[in-house]
Amino acid sequence: MKAYKIAAIPGDGIGSEVIAAGVEVLNALALRESSFVFRFDQFDWGGEYYKQHGRMMPEDGRDQIKDHDAILFGSAGHPDIPDHITLWGLRLAICQPFDQYANVRPARLLPGIKSPLSNIDDGELDWVIVRENSEGEYAGVGGRVHQGLPLETATDVSLFTRSGIERIMRFAFKLAQSRPRKLLTVVTKSNAQRHAMVMWDEIAEQIAPEFSDVSWDKMLVDAMAARMVTSPKSIDTVVATNLHADILSDLAAALAGSLGIAPTANLNPEGEFPSMFEPIHGSAFDIMDKGIANPIGTFWSSAMMLEHLGETVAARRLMNAIERVTADQQFHTPDLGGNADTERVTQAVIDAIRGSNN
Ligand code: NAD
Ligand code: MN
């Protein structure tokens, strides 16, 4: 029987709560499919590890997970440690060296969930945001000198390469082409940022003819934020820089009901390194240890992982189970206005998997 080796990295805060739930659901799914099993290796990297060892993961951490079939990640972020240390020491320390340059973030209004938007119904918000995940504003280029003095100076330099933009642009056009509406919006800020963002627009123009059946338009990021609220139905696939797409996808998640639902895939499309799947939310210090974190974002990310592994039947079964559960208000966690806890939602999804015939 096929055995998938999965590296589970729960991280901190609610990351560990939702990953535990995800592992339970994936094991139940494997039992139901009976054509594969998961072998989970758990890694205790993150804030607590940092407190003991002075780093978020061991020096040979990436070597320990480079041969896994996929990575299931919770969240990097600890109340006692500055956010830039936890983020760069763990999540970005995996994404960037493993060249997971395509970050895919679907946002869809699931059955039973209400959007804060009054102008859409079920099924009318169905977007995928593609985030460039290896460079741009997150290139880590910059510095800080003369700290504490009046002449203290700091820079964060956005760095864009032609090859980096070309590969994410082709990825986004191809993804748009695979979806029924074949519609792509290319987002920049090429009025104010007149070098790299202009190059981004030019590369979109150059690549578009390779995908002549895809309709596409360009939009400035601020106008795009407004369009997501005022004409959500006009949007399908979106491609944007690392920072712009990070912000737009939190907005998308909120418009689709809650940050607790939204999934992400960090893909290395060439398969040279494992890809990483995670909910888009962080450690949620305000609700950690209460057992009320919404695990749906992790379950949906797990469905994306199954899709990536080629297990499309299992992926669909999991998505169907998720949708059956969200349709029922008694399984809504507090972020969705309900009073279910993580455990209850997890059990409901497992029951739906066990009872499913498709
Ligand atoms: P956050 O996503 O942790 O929380 C924002 C708000 O959404 C909070 O009110 C939280 O309670 C709510 N929320 C998030 N996920 C939820 C869920 N599953 N169920 C119910 N409610 C949920 O963002 P933040 O507060 O800006 O960040 C907290 C920490 O997490 C910081 O250290 C930050 O750096 C880190 N972070 C990590 C990642 C990551 O590792 N991918 C992403 C975002 C933030
Ligand atoms: Mn984010």
Description of the structure:
It is built from 11 helices and 12 strands. The model has no long low-confidence stretch (mean pLDDT 97). The protein is globular and about 55 Å long. Helix 10 packs across helix 11 (342-354). It has 2 domains: 1-104 and 261-358, Isopropylmalate Dehydrogenase (3-Layer(aba) Sandwich), CATH 3.40.718; 115-256, 3-Layer(aba) Sandwich (Isopropylmalate Dehydrogenase), CATH 3.40.718. Helix content is 39%, strand content 22%. The protein binds nicotinamide-adenine-dinucleotide (NAD) and manganese (II) ion (MN). Residues 14, 18, 75-77, 83, 86-87, 91, 259-260, 278, 281-287, 293-294, 297, 333, 335 line the site of nicotinamide-adenine-dinucleotide.
User: What assembly state would you assign to the polypeptide chains in this entry?
Assistant: single chain
CATH superfamily of the largest domain: Isopropylmalate Dehydrogenase
List ligands, each type once.
Answer: nicotinamide-adenine-dinucleotide, manganese (II) ion
What is the residue-averaged pLDDT? 97
From the 3D structure, determine the CATH topology of the largest domain. Isopropylmalate Dehydrogenase
Largest sheet: 10 strands, mixed
Number of strands: 12
| Proportion in β-strands | 15-25%
Helix/strand order, N-terminal first: EHEHHEHEEEEHEHEHEHEEHHH
**What is the alpha-carbon Rg in Å?**
20 Å
Number of domains: 2
CATH architecture of the largest domain: 3-Layer(aba) Sandwich
For the termini, the CA-CA separation is 21 Å
Placed side by side, the strands forming the largest sheet appear as 2-1-3-12-11-4-5-10-8-9
CATH top level of the largest domain is Alpha Beta
Tell me the helix content. 25-40%
What structural class do you assign from the helix and strand content?
alpha/beta
Tell me the overall shape: globular
Number of helices: 11
Model regions low in confidence, pLDDT < 50 over at least 5 residues: none
